[in-house]
Amino acid sequence: MITASGLRKAYGATTAVDGISFSLAPGKVTGFLGPNGAGKSTTMRMAMGLDRPTAGSITINGKAFAEHRAPLREVGAVLDAGAAHPGWTGHQQLRILAATHDISTARVDEVIEMTGLTSVADKRIRGYSLGMSQRLGIAAALLGDPGVLIFDEPINGLDPEGVRWVRQLVRRLAGQGRTVFISSHLMSEMAQTADHLIVLGRGRIIADQPVGDFLDAA
Ligand code: ADP
Ligand code: ADP
């Protein structure tokens, strides 16, 4: 479960996130929708302990990210496809991540297979297409088999087949009872992918309701 309470983040004079509160339901895909600059990434980065709230809190299963003893087993995230080491192979990148989090190499092979990376796993990441890089990010997020998943703009730049694959994957993860939080600036895509939408504009929540309620209102 992800819970934000009075969450605020200011960068100097810029208020990126302006005191938002929400709670995500397990077993559902919650879409985080809003234009560029709305504060989606900042919120997700704070959930992952990569940025510190100016005020308020965001917790995973009741604890701030940094307070979890085995964080990757609690929450997996795709925040930045560029975070991979370009000179390593996908397999190496995942093995190192697994080793530093006490996750088995058998699990590395499992996530490579699950994410369709088998044919490129032994190639250097710098040669990966955008779609393969996104898949590698997703593989890393799944490594610890976490109950909570955070995907920041995972469909950016994907072709229609890639978009469909991500949609099916997140639906399946939620079907297994996991909490899935996925951001996008594409309303039509979120309407097809999510059960519930939190709409953000200029750091504030504009709407927080089931997808069906938006469709009824239209
Ligand atoms: P989104 O993910 O919805 O596109 P962001 O969370 O990236 O939005 O950005 C929200 C606002 O915060 C923007 O005005 C952005 O310029 C600003 N911002 C984000 N990160 C930083 C940072 N590290 N330093 C200064 N301003 C930032
Ligand atoms: P440090 O700067 O010492 O590495 P952190 O930035 O991880 O420490 O955390 C410093 C403080 O901020 C801690 O008291 C922690 O509980 C709090 N904190 C970190 N992440 C969050 C979060 N997502 N929500 C609320 N508080 C947080």
UniProtKB/TrEMBL annotation:
Any GO MF annotation of the entry: ATP binding
Domain ABC transporter: 2-218
Keywords: ATP-binding, Nucleotide-binding, Transport
Record keyword tRNA-binding present: no
Similarity field: Belongs to the ABC transporter superfamily.
Designated name of the protein: ABC-2 type transport system ATP-binding protein
Organism of provenance: Nesterenkonia lutea
Residues of the full protein shown: 1 to 218 of 303
